[in-house]
Design a protein that fits this description.
- The chain is of the alpha/beta class and about 425 residues long.
- The chain has three domains: about 180 residues, Rossmann fold, CATH 3.40.50.300; about 110 residues, no CATH class; about 90 residues, Rossmann fold (3-Layer(aba) Sandwich).
- The chain contains 18 helices and ten strands.
- The protein has a seven-stranded parallel β-sheet, with helices on both faces.
- Strand 3, helix 3 and strand 4 form a beta-alpha-beta unit.
- It is globular and about 70 Å long.
């Protein structure tokens, strides 16, 4: 309470509880017009911290702000005033606070305390660092809020002075628990590092039939047949416009991007997971599109002629019916996937809980299905990040359904699920159980 602090402590050691107690103390002593702003790196972590704060501090009204709230459309001061009316604690990503400060809808003098979860990110040109550099440090001393940083790793590289830079940016000193540390560590479950070796070459891959077929369609696209190009050329007012000329050169149209995006993702899955995984992915995506089982926002972005064009192109892709046999054959999956399956089978699901991190949202959907076939004793779920912007376009290659992941973290925490396949959306902070 006497000065700004960066709490450096292990994951699971109670940093969130420290933050809650610090928030409570600040709200009990500050002006009732002031707000505590809790900044986190991801929407998933924002929801988790909001639940924790709301449960422990019911006397103070809290709210989460994210792209899902259409924050980017709150372009008038009165909207922000109405949204924040009566709110004492705001939980959001760093970007939301940064944008609010840039546009002047929120001012530093309104804040009593800023809490930075995963505070080691407050360096360089990260949004959290920009909040501090462009607004906190440029404010008058008597208008600056107090700061609390939370991190399990205050030093994220070996560069001399990294910790000093972090402390300078946060105008704080770093402290870690020293008294009763051995007792504290009894309640901190540090993960055990197990290295799984595999031969990258592995068995000779069987080619992906669907991927090769999709590649032929993609490489055979004629930009002059694209519905948008045809429409632009047919209108005298746009027949010679800059946008049309650029599209003809770059080949960037909505239809082209949809086909290219699906091919690029399928190609990445082929390399990471195997040929049958790529076939399954392409089959699922095209079937989903052909059935019209995509979100309304995606359909609204395309004209009827573009939808028809895509349906015709996708009908040329060979997507023979998929079955579990191909996903059970060693020649159809990468050695890395088989090594993971062997590990999970050896571990068994009894008393097991874990996260499997992959690079892309597409891999989340495909790998979770593969694992459900091979380690059926595990209750498996998925989790992908929610976009920080409501303008994020849906694509043909999107299989993840964020509507079904509302309770995923609680399911893992309380043992209803054993394994979550996820992207880096759960990489920081959220995996404290």
């Amino acid at each position: 309470m006497q000065r700004n602090i960066i709490v450096a402590a292990d994951t699971g050691s109670g940093k969130t509880l420290i933050a809650i107690l610090r928030i409570q103390a600040e709200l009990e002593r500050c002006s009732p017009e002031k707000i505590v702003w809790f900044c986190v790196p991801t929407v998933a972590l924002a929801m988790q911290q909001y639940k924790a704060v709301s449960a422990q501090l019911p006397a103070f009204q809290a709210r989460v702000l994210s792209g899902a709230d259409n924050v980017e459309f709150w372009t008038e001061q009165w909207i922000w005033d109405e949204i924040l009316k009566g709110i004492r604690i705001v939980v959001s990503t760093h970007q939301v606070l940064l944008e609010a400060l840039i546009h002047g809808f929120v001012r530093m003098k309104q804040l009593a305390l800023m809490v930075f979860d995963e505070a080691h990110s407050c360096i360089g040109n990260h949004p959290s660092s920009r909040v501090l550099r462009d607004f906190y440090h440029t404010s008058k001393a008597d208008e600056r809020p107090a700061i609390l940083g939370l991190t399990a790793s205050p030093v994220i590289n070996s560069r001399v002075g990294n910790l000093g830079d972090l402390e300078s940016n946060l105008n704080a000193i770093s402290r870690t628990p020293k008294l009763h540390r051995e007792e504290l560590l009894k309640f901190v479950h540090r993960p055990q590092l197990i290295k799984l070796d595999y031969f990258p070459s592995g068995p000779k891959f069987v080619p992906s039939i669907a991927l090769e077929s999709l590649r032929a369609v993609y490489e055979g696209l004629d930009i002059n047949q694209d519905p948008w190009i045809i429409e632009m050329k047919s209108d005298p007012s746009t027949a010679d416009c800059t946008a049309l000329r650029k599209a003809m050169i770059s080949r960037k149209t909505d239809c082209y991007d949809q086909i290219k995006g699906l091919y690029d993702k399928a190609l990445a899955i082929f390399g990471e997971l195997g040929s049958s995984a790529a076939d399954y992915y392409i089959h699922q995506c095209i079937q989903k599109f052909q059935r019209g089982a995509v979100e309304a926002s995606f359909l609204m972005e395309l004209e009827d002629a573009e939808k028809t064009y895509l349906r015709n192109k996708f009908s040329q892709v060979n997507i023979a019916d998929q079955n579990a046999d191909s996903l059970a054959n060693i020649h159809f999956l990468t050695p890395k996937v088989w090594k993971l399956i062997e590990f999970l089978e050896a571990e068994g699901s009894a008393g097991f809980s874990g996260l499997v991190f992959v690079k892309t949202r597409a891999e989340v959907a495909v790998l979770s299905y593969i694992l459900s076939l091979h380690v059926s004793s595990f209750a498996i779920s998925t989790f992908v990040g929610a976009s920080s912007s409501s303008r994020r376009k849906n694509t043909v290659g999107e299989l993840a359904d964020i509507k079904n992941q509302k309770d995923t973290l609680d399911d893992l925490r309380y043992g209803r699920k054993d394994l979550i396949v996820t992207t880096n959306a759960l990489e920081e902070g959220t995996y404290t159980f």
